[in-house]
Amino acid sequence: MTPIGIGVEASWAALCAGKSGIGEITRFDASDYTTRIAAEVKGFNPEDFVPKKDARRNQLFISYALAASRMAMEDSGLSIDAKNGPRIGVITGCGLGGLATLEEHTMIINTRGPKRVSPFFIPMMIGNMAAGMISIQFGAKGPNLSIATACAAGTHAVGEAYKNIQRGFSDAVITGGMESVITPTCIAGFGAMKALSTRNDDPERASRPFDKDRDGFVVGEGAGILIIEALEHALERGARIYGEVIGYGMSGDGYHMTSPPPDAEGAVRCMEAAIADAGISCDQIDYINAHGTSTPLNDLYETRAIKTVFKEHAKSVPVSSTKSMTGHLLGAAGGIETVFSTLAAYHDIIPPTINFESGDEECDLDYVPNIARKTPIDIVMSNSFGFGGTNAAIIVRKYRP
After folding, report:
1. Which family does it belong to (predicted)?
2. Stretch 190-206: mean pLDDT, rounded?
3. Could you give the residue numbers annotated as active site?
4. Do the strands 144-147 and 88-93 form a parallel or antiparallel pair, or are they unpaired?
5. What is the mean pLDDT of residues 234-252?
6. Domain extent at residue 250
7. 231 and 293 fall within a common domain
8. N or C, which end of the chain has less CB nearby within 10 Å?
9. Mean pLDDT in the chain?
């Protein structure tokens, strides 16, 4: 569920075509804001995926999560019943959760009084309700977790789902990330930090990771959900397998609340941990789906981290940022980017970094500029880094029976 399409086929086709999902904000009047653009999901009707009563009660990030989960479950063919339900988990990531609901009810309290607050206010707002509602919707009664590690949350969720299965706690896990915070306080807050692009007159070219004229990220929304399961479980039920998760790494910078360290040593340790967990060498990685936010520091420091980890191979491994098209989905980013990374290996296509016109002196890697690349891909790494110095990397390999 992305700003460039509803469903995997539409999103993947738009991604490979290099289409941007960024435009003027329509959710509220942003005329007085420094940033007036965002990557909104278009044409979404919650009632296409959940009953009308539930759609009315759910905040948008929950509806996105349920919709993406329903599509993932239908595609996977996984059936959950009373017998296997306790062996099916739900692990999701979310950054800011129901921020829109918090804004709305703060206004209600201030203008109409506390007695006008909805009894659904708290359930609509808390970030773990997405995992809870997925569990309720499908009868998944195994481990139920919600991870709140800012922009790394979706990748942490996928990684923890992978480890949950390895440890034998679950046979399968519904996992990924979701977010919907294109709201006044979100845009104002990130704007006050000077983190957002102000290219309001040219929104489709505003997100330009690694380009020398990048000026900030663009807030996006949506959900990316995967069904991960033990190989023998998938084979036993005849599932179509898109790829194999083989490595997961995480680390903390211990440096600054929002800025990564200049030597990117936290990101370096994170990627090295994922590579070690996968039991491979760095030169076996064929493509890196970068965090690539389009902010001056992230793109520079991530490039430095890749050079440190990959050494001579850094010049030859393709690196691209799908955020150039989707914007930055915050807690949902790692979910959809794990989907995109898996599809890249499945289809042997690397999505491009659009709007890349020229790198600066240090952003000099192969960023797959502007046009998707058809090439054999076996192993992909996807990076996610969040405020507070929290880092995650996941490695996916093409499945070969």
Report:
1. Belongs to the thiolase-like superfamily. Beta-ketoacyl-ACP synthases family.
2. 97
3. 151
4. parallel
5. 97
6. 244-397
7. no
8. C
9. 96
